[in-house]
Specification:
With 352 residues, the chain is α/β, with parallel strands linked by helices. The protein has helices spanning 47-69, 88-105, 114-120, 165-175, 182-190, 221-233, 237-267, 282-291, 302-305, 309-321, and strands at residues 2-8, 13-22, 25-35, 78-84, 109-113, 133-138, 143-150, 153-159, 271-275, 296-299, 341-342. It folds into two domains: 2-120 and 305-342, Nucleotidyltransferase, domain 5; 131-299, ATPase, nucleotide binding domain (Nucleotidyltransferase, domain 5), CATH 3.30.420. It has a six-stranded mixed sheet with strand order 10-9-6-7-8-11, with helices on both faces. A five-stranded mixed sheet has the order 3-2-1-4-5, with helices on both faces. The structure holds 5'-O-[(R)-(carboxyoxy)(hydroxy)phosphoryl]adenosine and zinc ion.
Length: 352
Amino acid sequence: MTTLLAIETSCDETSAAVLRQEEGSVALASCVILSQDIHRIFGGVVPELASRAHLTTLGSVVDQALAEAGTSLEELDGIAVTAGPGLVGALLVGVMYGKTLAYRLDRPLIGVHHLEGHLFAPTLEQPDVAPPFVALLVSGGHTMLLDVRGWGDYRLLGTTRDDAAGEAFDKVGTLLGLGYPGGPAIERLAAGGSPERYKFPRPMLNVVDEPGPDQFSFSFSGLKTALLRAVKASPDLERDRADLARGFQDAVLAVLTEKAAVAVESLDYPALMLGGGVACNRALQQAAQRRLRGRRVMVASNRLNTDNAAMIGAAGLFRLGRGERSGLDLEPRADLPFPGLEAGTLLLGSPR
Ligand code: KG4
Ligand code: ZN
């Protein structure tokens, strides 16, 4: 049996988890996630404050994860830590902590790519989740459509030209006076809003059937501008807020769902995986399942979709299992390249 401690400090959650692997099956023994509330005051993550908060809390978060798993430092067989991408000062805290433990305990260390962590999240709850599948990773920092041919063997189908999907939710949340993060608040409001009143543009949806560099690309900054105009034109924002939220969410989900579905159909894969914070959105999950009737839509629970150390542990176990190790010279990188990601956009034919 292998017992692994995982650490995640790439943004504004301080998280530690313990995973146990036995004969290929992985069990989550504990996962502690401490969300830094301080950023709400500022309407977004303040990097300096995030680093300091990780520094003061990481020790206790790790202690609690070990206690909840009923284990101790000495019983650990390895340490996994997010090495990027993310806020470099925030990553530095986790990486230094992980390196110190690995050195003091003389155990293997593995630096994990945050987005590969998101890819592995559903495996912790649904052990039969396995490639090939298409993954739509949508978070505050990233929007990626991936062809997951195998674990560690990825092809980039498309990404965003400007804002990430979650970033668009957050910015629109601010425009609507909803505070940070915007995603959950917009989802709640949109549920009671009219789908008919505001018809916002569906950016880059018109090219989804045209094999070419933008077939699976996304762009959300124009949509944000359209929303800003509608907010300014509204004589009564209080009255129109839910309808605006609904119009915005419908536009984002229409593009995300259709591009992901066309990718799945083009590759004729049995499944789509939704990952990252925006994948918590129930309307997105339902739209994807409706559109891909007959195929499987795989999503982790909300707790494992937003940032957490458990997913970093799952990806770490995969990498350690392949014999990979990080040295004590491991450095966090804000722009860490995705391991196993084939460069260049794939051109797919139209499925219809
Ligand atoms: O993956 P994550 O926790 O952190 C990053 O790696 O960025 O994602 C956070 C993002 C935020 O932008 C937040 O607004 C968005 O996920 N989010 C949602 C929902 N819950 C979180 N967006 C839409 N609907 C939600 N229910
Ligand atoms: Zn994330």
